[in-house]
Structures are given as structure tokens and as C-alpha cells.
Amino acid sequence: MKAIVNSKFYDFKNYREDSYILFDEKILKIGSMKEFTSIEKKHIDTIIDGSNCILMPGLINGHTHIYSTFSRGMNLPFNPQSFKDILDQLWWKLDGVLDIEDCYLSAIIYGVDCIKNGVTTLIDHHASGGNILGTLKKLKTAICDDLGLRGLFCFETSDRFNIDQCIEENIDFSKVKNESCYGLFGMHASMSISDSTMEKVYNLKGDIPIHIHVAESLDDEIDAINKYGKTVVERLRDHKLLGNNSILAHCVHINHMEAEILGNNNVFVALNPTSNMNNAVGLPDYNLLKRHNIPCIIGNDGLGANITREYLNLTYSMKNKYQSPLAFNFGDLLKIINNTYEYVSNQLGIKIGRLDEGYVADLILVPYNPPTMISEENIFSHIYFGIFDNFAPSYVICKGSIVMDNYKIKLPLSNVYEESREASRKIWNKLN
Ligand SMILES: [Zn+2]
């Protein structure tokens, strides 16, 4: 059993001052430091001092791409005129050559960056053309077993790849289900999936929820209308692929009718505003999603590992989009953060995202010395302006184990960065 003492606590709902927490894999007890003096301490093997820190639940990245690791510093001819060009000239070149060992290395490196950013659960959308079969288990080995985090994984089925293998990989991995990992059914996007592939997926996937990019750029909608005479969401509905807690990433260009369909079909939309700005594809219409009661979660689309930057950028970009400083408030952001916890709670069958007894011990300790008065009333203002903007947790704990100990991370391989650089040399050589 471990303890964190003398800390402030905040879990996107409740705030406590000067408190302690006892935990193993789950949170066992929480109370004020006044009570701590009287509790039995002989079973506590580690005590972390949380003075001048805020304890929070580990964060979740609701949509990411671990394979983007090897794009850092990559130099390919790049002159995109459209979003499809960005895929053709960059991402599809890179993911097309990755093999199973590259997947492992990318996951370790990406996972380490997640830990530094306080992210303890990732919802990944994977692609690797060099190997398809077995890659999701490899990601799970790196993220869940070797680094001790949680992950929801899927392989992005598309007509670019061997479709039967994509389907097999998703179905095979969905059998691995425990409290730290689960499989969704990955699909790339409407514009890379034919009707016959959609039908095959529907016939074989059973009740696994899909995880797909939807209307990330206008190209996706234009492609669906030109080829099939309907919008992206209508296509997915007609192929009976919506529902059952599916994740639809982006939904930047959906119209009112599509939002209505989504609102009636039990899906979650994963927002990734920084990636949308980087790709210059537009921004999601959050008010449209909100009006149709579509629950939103938040990811970063593999653009780095910092999820608090997404919290900030979502807020700024929505205010700017609607040209109103009141358009998107703390309540909206908190709702989206809490939806993300709720989603993972339901999929993994655990209680995650609160500092309460019975919840999993996925915790981050963030040094913070408030320069102004801090209380239950203004805590989120401190978190938003003081912590999200300078985010650097000192301790990260997942499943009750310390995965970052006072900024130190224990790597599963001592030479993982050398191996990764060597792998990048081989990968980039294949592309040039
Ligand atoms: Zn994505």
C-alpha cells in the first residue's frame, strides 16, 4: 500500500486541501491530514510528500496515433495542396512501411512522452503496412505491460491494406479484454473504404464499437457524395456501423442532418483541435454537436503527447470560431474531460477519473504553488491558467504503480532511444 500526503486534490469535480490518499491498484482511502495521524501505518510501504502539489487523476488521450513517433524530423518532399495530399505525401508513406518491431519501439517512445505529460490511458488508432497481424498485441505489450499504462487499440482498416488481415487483427485483438486494455474496431475513413469493405466489416465485426475518422476534411464528405451519393455519416448509418459507443474522430464537416443521426446513435465524437489547425482543415462545430446531445471526448490525433494543450486549444479555438469570448466555457471543457473518463470507465469496466475510494489508482502529482488565493470556487481557473499551461507532473502512477518517480521514468530497455534512432534511419531510407 502506498500513500501520498500533505497534498491538495482535484479531480475535475471536487477539490480538497491538505489531504492524504492510500492506494494499491485502487484507491483505498482519502481523508484530511488531521485524520492521517490516527490511521494504522504499518502496511504503508511508500509515502510520497505532496506538499505544494495538486494530486489529480491520470489524464486520457481520447484519439491518437502512436505510429506518428517516427515522423519527428522526417524530411520528405512535401507540398500538400489538400488534406488528401498530406496523407499521400506524409502519413501513408510512413505507416505503409512500419513493421512489428517499429510498432513496439514507437509505442515505448510515445508512451514515455505520455507519462511525462501525465497521460495514463490512450485510445490509439494504429496503422502499419509492413506488418498488420500481431501489431496490436505488440502495442499492448509496450504500453500496458512494459510501461504499465492503459490503452484501447485498433487497426485502421482501409482499402490501402490487405482488408482480410485488417479485419482479422481487429477481431483477434478484441478478445484481449481486461482492466488495462481493450480493442475497438479500427477503420481509416470513408474516403479510403469501399462499400464492399464496409459490408465485410459489418458482417464480421460483431458488436465491437468502431473507431474511425469522420469528415476530418471536406475531401471526405465530397468523396462520399461523389462516389455514393450520400454523406459520410449516412454511409456509416446505412452500413449499420454506428452505435454501441463508437468513436468518430473529428466530425469537422458534418452537417445538421448528420449531427441528428449521430445524436440518435450512441456514438462519441473525439475532438482534436490542434491537429485540425495544423492540417488547416477547419474546426469542429462544437455547438452543433452540443445541440444534438452528442457526447464529445478529446484527443490529439498523435500530434505530440501533451493533452492539456488540447484542453487549452479547444477552448481558444472555439471562442475564436464563434467570435465570442463566451462561446465555450470551463463547463464545456470539464464536460468533455469527464466524458473521456466515462468512456474509458465503460469500455474497460473500471471506475476511472475521480479521487474517490474504489476508483483505480491512476494518479498524477503536479507541483503548483498558487500565487493567489485558491479555493473550491476558483480551483479550475488555477488548473486551466496555472497548470495546463505549464504542465509538468513530478509523479505519475498507473494501476497503483509509480511509473514516473520524481521525474524519473524506468525504461524497459536501456538503449531504447538508440534503437529508435536506428529504426528511424531504416524507415526513412525506405521512403526516400
Ligand atoms: Zn486520427
TrEMBL record:
Gene3D superfamilies: Metal-dependent hydrolases, Urease, subunit C, domain 1. Residues 54-403 form the Amidohydrolase-related domain. The keyword Hydrolase applies. It comes from the Bacteria. InterPro entries: Amidohydro-rel, Metal-dep_hydrolase_composite, Metal_Hydrolase, MTA/SAH_deaminase. Pfam families: Amidohydro_1. The keyword Ligase does not apply. Keywords: Hydrolase. This is Selenium metabolism protein SsnA.
